[in-house]
Amino acid sequence: MMMRSLIPLALLAFSLPALAQEPPPPRIQVTGEGEVAAAPDMAQVQIGVTTESGTAAAALDANSEATAAVLARLAEQGVAEADMQTGNLSLYPRRDDRRSQNGGGLDEPPIVGFVANHTVSVTIRQLDSLGGVLDAVVSDGANTLGGLSFGLQDPAEALDAARREAVADAMRKAELYAEAAGVVLGPVRAISEPVMQDGPMPMMAMEADMMRGAVPVAEGEVKVTATVTMSFAIGE
């Protein structure tokens, strides 16, 4: 019984190297890229309130009051509560660096006040109101603006168009390589798309004049890109 059970294993051991030595079929693998430009229909901006006072409590209280006014004004401007999110909340001492620089002999400059900062990330879904919203919140106490970017609320349609362009680009490259190499391009064997780490990349510009009416904003365009890798068989 023991000898009969070893025979199939021995035959299998001799057959495995032969299978492993078979070369993979020749293929052409290329990467295609596609890009589609679209008008943005939303914007995201970082709105901040920075206050300073002689004590930490006073700085934080003043900041909380000003931030509450800014949030209330955003709500009045039609910004939904779900589209407002705190991105940073900080409180830190402000030191008199001049005494240290002038040879005061101190290991650490003295504290002369405290600074509180509250930054809120705001999504604006009505772009025609963006300039008015920015002007309104500045009037109510916001004194820092940054990180303005434009995007698409639903990029699926633009992304699918970019994917079609990426596939067409990959097929064009494969046909070119096959012709240059003097071979026949066979059918598609594999298609893959890398995982997108970032959303659509915006191409935009912003101009601001806080002294005159609503803030003018140039929306520009949002460019949506797609990349695809395709593998083709080489025909006979």
UniProtKB/TrEMBL annotation:
GO BP terms, alphabetized: DNA damage response
Secretion signal span: 1-20
Region of interest (Disordered), residue spans: 88-109
Keyword Membrane in annotation: no
UniProt-listed InterPro entries: 26kDa_periplasmic_antigen (IPR052022), SIMPL/DUF541 (IPR007497)
Keywords of the record: Signal
The keyword Signal belongs to this UniProt entry's keyword annotation: yes
Name of the protein this chain belongs to: DUF541 domain-containing protein
Originating organism: Halovulum marinum
